Protein: Intracellular proteinase inhibitor
Amino acid sequence: MSRWNACRSAALILAVAVLAGCARSAPESPVPAPATPAGTADTVVTVTVSVGGADDRIAVTVTNGSQMPVYADDLRTDCSPVLLERRAGDTWTAYDNCGVERAGSVVTWAPGERREFRLDPAGGDGVVPPAPAGVYRVTLGFRRSPAPEGTVAERVHSAPFRIG
Structure:
């Protein structure tokens, strides 16, 4: 069975479980799953991930469901503001493949704003090696004020998912 058919089958099973009202994220599920907020209880910024699209990139959606803007610095994975992390035992290791030599930029999410990013774990630029097979998550480190740049006050993570 192709990877697309496997992902589609898994997505169908998850949809049936959600409709039945008893869905739970599997720790290594390759289907979209809501983020689990880290930090304060009032964190309403979410990160969702979908793996295995037509180009095998990771589709990441960051949504600011709060009543105030949030800010994050770019130059993380694929030079976006999100960071792909691989599980190694009990720790998470960053796959920070942005080799651009420029000053970082601050990315702002207005209240209610949603932004999408596509990460290439295959190292599509030919310079960065592909991400090895394993269990991953996507992390967004952010703050609720534009300054000071480079600081991370809160973090949210996607549910873990498998690459390879």
